[in-house]
DNA sequence: GTCTATAGGCGGATAGAC
DNA sequence: GTCTATCCGCCTATAGAC
């Protein structure tokens, strides 16, 4: 499944230090702008040690992305949402989805993977499958359930799930992708989420 | 306004050749992966000539992005949409917006600017203002008009515009950002656009 | 303005001792 | 496994002739 990475190295070990440093540097500055010297320095390791664990810069980058991609998913949230009424369930999902994809860490991940998608296509795909695809699956499952219970009338759950995430990311996500702001304020987030849930409920009313 | 770029050089001139080559290479491979030698070679120019016109790689990159950013906007489309009934107007806007932001050229632009947003923040901002921000303005104007005429009930036109673009980009835009597909099929596009327009109209019914 | 040729340095990767 | 020291190529940028 996850062909990219060996099991996460034990915390505190040299490989872990290296991955940690690589994460910070690559995510903050991008692949091209980070040298192996910089990684070695931040990890308090010699370059030779670095190369002993990761054979090349490419390999280190891949390992780092794989490590970062192991994000939390929305599994538990979607299960909980199914036990609430629609408005609360949608709001719960929207809220956690927003927190998930608009966190500074996630944004940095998007930026670096998107920026190198041309050169590392398999990496982009692995990132997609480990993160966004898994999340979508969960939300589609929720939509199916809502439709089955007749809470809303959702003929195409896949489409509906895509619409919900589109509504939540809306225009804001692009602004964060471009580093035009650091992270959404509580106020802005509420405005977006309330708007998304209201539109969705009214639009899919049974 | 556009502080980034001198007036577009006359077609066929050396600067134009260089910008053209830079565009193809940077957009296809990213900033870090393209050397000045490669640009000079593709432009059929010596490196010295290149540096005579663009003082550094950074400067060339900025000029290229500014050149590419001069995209068409949705001004004419939004004006036309105002003269149609809501469903047709929204569909027209959604359609042209989708064509605009999901074209291979636009996607390549997003990728390279997003990837370098950390290192070229002013560039990201200029790109945003020249493209997405202008487009949003037009769509907001359309929403205001639709609300004024009572065709729909839109209390927050800015929010509604953001929602519409979110619905159209939905999940698909991310997949193209990650190079997971080349461009949406006619069929997929119609499914997304119809879904967006239907949801929007029902959700904002007067 | 445009070229050829080259300087100068950075950065990826390795040799060899411990 | 880890270190210090070093190789070598590539890439940005420039010098100097035409």
UniProtKB/TrEMBL annotation, chains A, B:
DNA-binding stretch(es), residue numbering of this chain: 35-54
One Pfam family of this chain: TetR_C_7
Organism: Azospirillum rugosum
Keywords for this protein: DNA-binding
Domain of life: Bacteria
Alphabetical list of InterPro entries matching this protein: DNA-bd_HTH_TetR-type_CS (IPR023772), Homeodomain-like_sf (IPR009057), HTH-type_TetR-like_transc_reg (IPR050109), HTH_TetR (IPR001647), Tet_transcr_reg_TetR-rel_C_sf (IPR036271), TetR_C_Proteobacteria (IPR039536)
Residues covered by the HTH tetR-type domain: 12-72
Keyword DNA-binding attributed: yes
Protein name listed in UniProt: AcrR family transcriptional regulator
């Amino acid at each position: 499944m996850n062909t990219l990475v060996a099991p996460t190295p034990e915390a505190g070990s040299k490989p872990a230090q290296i991955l940690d440093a690589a994460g910070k540097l690559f995510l903050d500055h991008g692949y091209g702008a980070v040298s192996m010297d910089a990684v070695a320095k931040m990890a308090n390791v010699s370059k030779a040690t670095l190369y002993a664990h990761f054979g090349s810069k490419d390999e280190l980058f891949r390992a780092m992305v794989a490590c970062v991609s192991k994000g939390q998913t929305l599994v538990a949230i979607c299960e909980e949402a199914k036990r609430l009424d629609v408005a609360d369930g949608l709001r719960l999902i929207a809220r956690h989805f927003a927190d998930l994809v608009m966190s500074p860490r996630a944004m940095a991940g998007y930026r670096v993977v998107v920026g190198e998608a041309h050169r590392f296509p398999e990496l982009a795909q692995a990132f997609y499958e480990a993160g966004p695809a898994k999340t979508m699956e969960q939300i589609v499952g929720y939509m199916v359930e809502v439709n089955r219970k007749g809470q809303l009338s959702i003929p195409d759950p896949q489409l509906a799930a895509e619409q919900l995430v589109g509504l939540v990311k809306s225009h804001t996500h692009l602004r964060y992708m471009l580093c035009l702001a650091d992270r959404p304020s509580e106020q802005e987030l509420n405005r977006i989420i309330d708007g998304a849930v209201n539109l969705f409920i009214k639009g899919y009313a049974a």
